[in-house]
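QA checklist item 7 of 12: single-chain prediction sanity check.
[x] sequence parsed
[x] length recorded as 219
[x] structure emitted
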Amino acid sequence: MKREWISGLIAGVGLSAAAALYVISPSKVSPDQIQASVTQAPDLINRAWVLPVAATFKSNVTWQSNGSRCGPASVANVFRSIGEEETTEAEVLDGTGKCWTGVCIMGLTLDELAEVAKAQTTRDVSVLRDLTSEAFHEHMRRANDPGRRYIINFSREMIFGAGVGHHSPIGGYLETEDMVFVLDVNEDFKPWLIDRERLFSAMDTMDGDKKRGLLLIDE
């Protein structure tokens, strides 16, 4: 019995290590795939950076420290843009009990990320999921409101053909082009623009037994 327990423990540790490795180094998306999948044309990106919300990030995104911590990195970037004190991954996670090993095993769900954000701010934090395309469009129209910040949870695979679930702040919405500005916290991707309906389709996917969605932080 003892040998079986030890074997089970080792197997469990092995699975946890494999999961950690997976989220730290998820399936790679090549630079060519990125360029072919989203818009990073300098003229449009420059226009996006002067949108009211994007401008508060001062053309700067602090990259996530590893592949599992996109959620805390997104919250830290958003907090910096609205003047909160907790502007690093470590400060955002402090006291939450999340990712204490340095790795968020299998990443954080949207609900877990909301818990993290709520622990560090007095602002309203809401999870928005099961949205229709029309409701998502309305939220994107409001994404240029300086009093609101959105973080989107979406499937990379739906956009880039590879990758896993991911969190990143939304910098704003170019309404004439119907494109959303995603402030990707992964340095390999950097910020990009995408057609609103394509981003909605990548968000309108399952993460376990719940849909992905938006995290809204507002005054």
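[x] summary fact logged: The radius of gyration is 18 Å.
[ ] second reviewer sign-off
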